[in-house]
Design goal:
By secondary structure, this protein is mainly α. Helix content is 47%, strand content 4%. The protein contains eleven helices and three strands. The protein has a three-stranded antiparallel sheet. The protein starts with a helix and ends in a 10-residue tail after the last helix. The chain binds zinc ion. Zinc ion binds next to loops. The site of zinc ion has 8 residues, from loops.
């Protein structure tokens, strides 16, 4: 556990590893090495998506390059590594589908060894077709040296800061406030994935289809994404207002 923590893994991930090792040991009748109190404690964080006001403001302040990149994150629902290693060959311009493919030569393998394809909007395909004309790399979003780009999060947080979209309340582990620095924890790459799920769900795409597009191994993860969205839906809104309507504190004033 100490070694994983030194490697910078989160408490939740470490706990998952420990649970798995525990199961292996149990199968071999090795028990009681750890009790529940020894395991790392973590808070189960609520799944959050961006709302349309945030995205509109973000894209309005973005450079063309930033807009392209983050619209790609949003339109594909890809994980950070999947965007980093996406190559032009993975983009099917006529079928308007983008595929996550293993690239062992670059050291990239998709999570759970699952390759998958995601249909994307026409507008995204059109901007990609334009981008391809000027591209000199096999990668869609290469770093400055043509290698995979590891700075997407920093780019997003800089953009959010410039667009004045920081929450102004959070601190980094080193104590830096996002009120004055481009370090706001409200802005993360994974949140585009959650937004992708939310928007498709609101448009009526069934959960098992969204699960396939996200590449989730189990439907329960996808449903956790969608539950957070349902909390903010019109339907929930009208139910909540109806619950208290008799008291006159239901709907909008
Ligand atoms: Zn913040």
């Amino acid at each position: 556990m100490a070694s994983l923590q030194e490697d910078g893994l989160g408490l939740r991930t470490i706990s998952n590893h420990i649970t798995r090792i525990g199961a292996l040991l149990r199968r071999h009748k090795i028990v009681d090495l750890l009790n529940n109190d020894d395991k790392p404690k973590y808070d189960e964080r609520e799944v959050e998506a961006y709302d349309s006001d945030q995205l509109t403001a973000l894209f309005a302040a973005a450079s063309p390059e930033e807009r392209m990149l983050f619209q790609f994150f949003l339109g594909t629902g890809f994980r950070e590594q999947e965007v980093m290693f996406c190559s032009w060959r993975n983009v099917d311009f006529s079928g308007k589908v983008i595929t996550v493919k293993s690239k062992p030569e670059l050291g990239f393998r998709p999570k759970d060894k699952q390759e998958r394809s995601v249909p994307v909007p026409d507008a995204l395909i059109a901007s990609l077709a334009n981008r391809r004309k000027h591209s000199t790399s096999m990668l869609v979003f290469p770093g400055p040296n043509g290698k995979p780009n590891g700075h997407f999060l920093r780019m997003l947080q800089k953009l959010a800061h410039r667009a004045k979209l920081n929450c102004s309340e959070c601190l980094t582990k080193a104590g830096k406030s996002c009120a004055k620095n481009s370090t706001c924890g409200d802005w993360g790459l994974h949140k585009f994935r959650k937004t992708f799920a939310t928007m498709h769900s609101e448009a009526g795409v069934p959960a098992p289809t969204i699960q396939r597009w996200l590449g989730h191994a189990s439907l329960s993860t996808t449903l956790r994404y969608l539950a957070a969205a349902d909390l903010r839906s019109e339907r929930t809104r009208s139910q909540v207002n109806t619950s208290f309507a008799a008291l006159g504190i239901g709907g909008a004033a």
